């Protein structure tokens, strides 16, 4: 089965015009900001580590390309590049130079799989030929007279020819493209082996030999194609998470025009500020805010939570959730490319393309395959010919060596496990951004939690609104509306519907980790943490969270809040502690509030009133001591710490920057998702090690047998195909085991040193 089918899909119309093609790629690219753009191309001919290395190496040579990462399971390449409106590179032309057709990736699917269709047709032809030749071979091997035997050999040759020509082209086309561009791949030895076996049989037939091996050559093709077809189906099954995400987005949406008319427009034409009508039974097309109507939402396919949620005016909705009640009028806040669902899809793609240490080892080993296997086959042939003088037997042994020595199992050992792990987490409402994070997660010995929005739900309620002057509450609400901080949201909600703020602000600015600063003439207003907003040495509200409103440093109002612990927090902390993992809270909130939550969760170590850079310095200090830190946070002020940690996790309620800086994002409310992530990573590590062991053992055991002449070409094809199928099947075992899930972190290896 190995690699590199020759099913080529041409690039989009205009492929002959380089400038037009480059312009098309530029227009289809995504702007990442700061002059950086991202293009995703589909590569139907990529099937192995050698292909991945060739594509990435060619693209990285292009001026302006900063990243080229191939996703084996989806056969896509993500290219991050710098360019302007006047100049863009023709990536398709560069790929064509090394023999790879490409086209722009699209979520539009027609439900057809051309690769699978071609493989099935080739498999049918090979199967028909092999079965009929085997029937004739029974008579030959049973002792038919010479005339009958020769006639049956001629008929077998005629039956084998369609299989060799039609079914074998899957391998020949790929091998030829590789060779004529000065490289090799795994289909080169496969093609050589098949053609040599057929040629040897034709030679024996013409010379009226006692036996010919048309049954072996056609059966060889049938087995190889059967293995490749199964591999294609299993890869598609493993990767179905991304396809499921893409299918959550509708093709278009009903847009309400200014005159009240409703038009159905494609998803790509939806812009921020448009009013959309989401009928009952439809999915929300893009992120937005409800402006009219009230209904229930089914979020199970997006967040993994079965309970319906209430939507009413002011509710923020994410793309992909289903409206199951009444019609809603939605104000789009982002375009389709910027929606939460699109972000989750990109995260899944990134997770499948991650380069872990294991994967780099496998890729390097697979890249050495072609020169090694060709050398071993030639040495085997010359050695046997020198020792026996039997050219026929020497060529047969060389064919078996060519076929049996395949690193497909080694090349699939890591990426298949990562793909399945990402899919299983997706089914539980968890998104993985980086496949290598699964490996890093097994090293953690320290877990740091942010408090607000992480250990707590981030939903605060202002408890002393009745004690505040209406004028000051309105003033604070006007400032709070520029921030997404839970305390700001609570103040803005409490001040909703009151008269306008008594002050007209010249500017409002959020100071990350501190609060909001507003300027009105010469006066400076601050709303935020007491130590930053006020000159007062202390503001004491017991264990309540407090936010202060000040004018020129003088406290004018104090806001007290209540917050609830996130579901699953207690169970997660207890499980981590029982596994010997150090647990600590790193929060920017005041000490009294952090102490209250730490007491509820029985966490002894905590640090409060930390600024973003202080969190980063603390993580670096732990890393310097050899600690492997898992950071779990959600706020904008947590983003640097999330990026600095060995591995990081964020809830979906995190800011865009926080989600982008984390390795995993869980979509539900329960913190037990963190336990699911760690368990999945531990199980994935076990399966990767098993796959490596099986792949190495296969080659160590099988190659000597082939060199010794104890393996026929047909047996070699069976063994080679079976090795890859076993590795992929072993990776698919991850699902059932994780669904049951062990009750402790028995697979982890936490350190016993405490902070």
UniProtKB/TrEMBL annotation:
Residues covered by the HMA domain: 37-103
Alphabetical GO biological process terms: copper ion homeostasis
Gene Ontology cellular component terms for the protein in this record: plasma membrane
GO molecular function: ATP binding; ATP hydrolysis activity; copper ion binding; P-type divalent copper transporter activity
Pfam family, one: E1-E2_ATPase
Isomerase is among the record's keywords: no
InterPro entries: ATPase_P-typ_cyto_dom_N, ATPase_P-typ_P_site, ATPase_P-typ_TM_dom_sf, ATPase_P-typ_transduc_dom_A_sf, ATPase_P-type_domA, HAD-like_sf, HAD_sf, Heavy-metal-associated_CS
Localization (cell): Cell membrane
UniProt membrane topology term: Multi-pass membrane protein
Name this protein carries in UniProt: Copper-translocating P-type ATPase
Organism for this UniProt entry: Sinorhizobium medicae (strain WSM419) (Ensifer medicae)
Transmembrane segments: 122-144, 150-172, 184-203, 365-385, 397-421, 692-711, 717-736
Family annotation (CDD domains): HMA, P-type_ATPase_FixI-like
Main localization of the protein described in the UniProt heading: membrane
Lineage: Bacteria, Pseudomonadati, Pseudomonadota, Alphaproteobacteria, Hyphomicrobiales
Keywords: ATP-binding, Cell membrane, Ion transport, Magnesium, Membrane, Metal-binding, Nucleotide-binding, Phosphoprotein, Plasmid, Translocase, Transmembrane, Transmembrane helix, Transport
Family indicated by similarity: Belongs to the cation transport ATPase (P-type) (TC 3.A.3) family. Type IB subfamily.
């Amino acid at each position: 089965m190995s690699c590199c089918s020759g099913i080529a899909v041409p690039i989009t119309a205009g492929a002959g015009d380089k400038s037009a093609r480059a312009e098309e790629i530029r227009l289809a690219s995504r702007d990442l900001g700061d002059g950086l753009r991202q293009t995703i191309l589909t590569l139907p001919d990529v099937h192995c580590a050698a292909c991945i290395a060739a594509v990435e190496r060619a693209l990285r040579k292009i001026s302006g390309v900063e990243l080229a990462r191939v996703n084996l399971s989806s056969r896509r390449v993500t290219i991050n590049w710098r360019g302007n409106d006047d100049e863009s590179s023709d990536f398709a032309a560069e790929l064509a130079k090394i023999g790879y057709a490409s086209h722009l990736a699209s979520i539009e699917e027609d439900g057809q799989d051309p690769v699978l269709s071609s493989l099935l047709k080739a498999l049918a032809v090979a199967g028909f030929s092999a079965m009929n030749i085997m029937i004739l071979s029974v008579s030959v091997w049973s002792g038919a007279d010479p005339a009958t035997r020769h006639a049956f050999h001629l008929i077998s040759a005629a039956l084998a020819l369609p299989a060799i020509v039609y079914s074998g082209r899957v391998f020949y086309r790929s091998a030829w493209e590789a060779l004529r561009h000065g490289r090799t791949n795994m289909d080169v030895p496969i093609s050589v082996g098949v053609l040599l076996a057929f040629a040897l049989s034709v030679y024996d037939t013409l010379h009226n030999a006692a036996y010919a091996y048309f049954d072996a050559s056609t059966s060889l093709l049938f087995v190889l194609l059967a293995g490749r077809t199964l591999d294609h189906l299993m890869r598609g099954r493993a990767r179905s998470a991304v396809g499921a995400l893409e299918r959550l987005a509708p093709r278009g949406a009903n847009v309400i025009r200014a005159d009240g008319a409703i038009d159905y427009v494609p998803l790509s034409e939806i812009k921020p500020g448009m009013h959309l009508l989401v009928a009952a039974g439809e999915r929300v097309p893009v992120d937005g805010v409800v402006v009219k109507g009230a209904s229930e939402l089914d979020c199970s396919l997006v967040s993994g939570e079965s309970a319906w949620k209430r939507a009413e005016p002011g509710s923020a909705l994410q793309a992909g959730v289903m409206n199951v009640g009444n019609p809603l009028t939605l104000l789009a806040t982002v375009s389709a490319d910027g929606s939460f669902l699109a972000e989750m899809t990109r995260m899944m793609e990134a997770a499948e393309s991650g380069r872990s240490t294991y994967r780099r080892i496998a890729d390097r080993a697979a890249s050495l395959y072609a020169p090694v296997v060709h050398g071993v086959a030639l040495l085997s042939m010359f050695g046997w010919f020198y020792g026996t003088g039997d050219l026929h037997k020497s060529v047969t042994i060389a064919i078996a060596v060519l076929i049996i020595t395949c690193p497909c199992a080694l090349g699939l050992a890591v990426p298949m496990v990562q793909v399945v792990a990402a899919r299983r987490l997706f089914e539980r409402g968890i998104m993985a951004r980086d496949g290598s994070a699964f490996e890093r997660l097994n090293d953690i010995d320290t877990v740091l939690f942010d408090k607000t929005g992480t250990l707590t739900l981030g939903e605060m309620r202002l408890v002393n609104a009745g004690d505040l002057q209406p004028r000051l509450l309105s003033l604070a609400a006007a400032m709070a509306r520029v921030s997404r901080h839970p305390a700001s949201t609570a103040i803005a909600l409490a001040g909703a519907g009151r008269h306008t703020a008594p002050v007209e602000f010249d500017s409002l600015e959020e100071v990350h980790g501190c609060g909001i600063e507003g300027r009105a003439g010469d006066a400076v207003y601050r709303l935020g943490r007491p130590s930053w907003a006020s000159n007062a040495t202390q503001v004491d509200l017991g264990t309540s969270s407090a936010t202060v409103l000040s004018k020129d440093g003088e406290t004018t109002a104090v806001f007290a809040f209540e917050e609830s612990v996130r579901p699953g927090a207690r169970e997660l902390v207890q499980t981590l502690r029982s596994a010997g993992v150090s647990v600590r809270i790193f929060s920017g909130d005041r000490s009294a509030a952090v102490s209250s939550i730490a007491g509820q969760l029985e966490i002894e170590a905590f640090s409060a009133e930390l600024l973003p850079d202080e969190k980063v310095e603390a993580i670096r200090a732990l890393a310097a001591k050899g600690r492997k830190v898992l950071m779990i946070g959600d706020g904008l002020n947590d983003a640097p710490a999330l990026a600095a940690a060995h591995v990081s996790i964020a809830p979906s309620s995190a800011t865009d920057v926080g989600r982008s800086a984390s390795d995993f994002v869980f979509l539900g409310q329960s913190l037990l998702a963190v336990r699911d992530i760690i368990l999945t990573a531990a199980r994935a590590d076990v399966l990767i090690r098993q796959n490596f062991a099986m792949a190495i053992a296969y080659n160590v055991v099988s190659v000597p047998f082939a060199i010794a002449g104890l393996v026929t070409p047909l047996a070699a094809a069976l063994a080679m195909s079976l090795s890859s199928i076993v590795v992929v099947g072993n990776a698919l075992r991850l699902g059932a085991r994780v669904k049951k899930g062990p009750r402790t972190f028995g697979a982890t290896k936490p350190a016993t040193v405490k902070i």
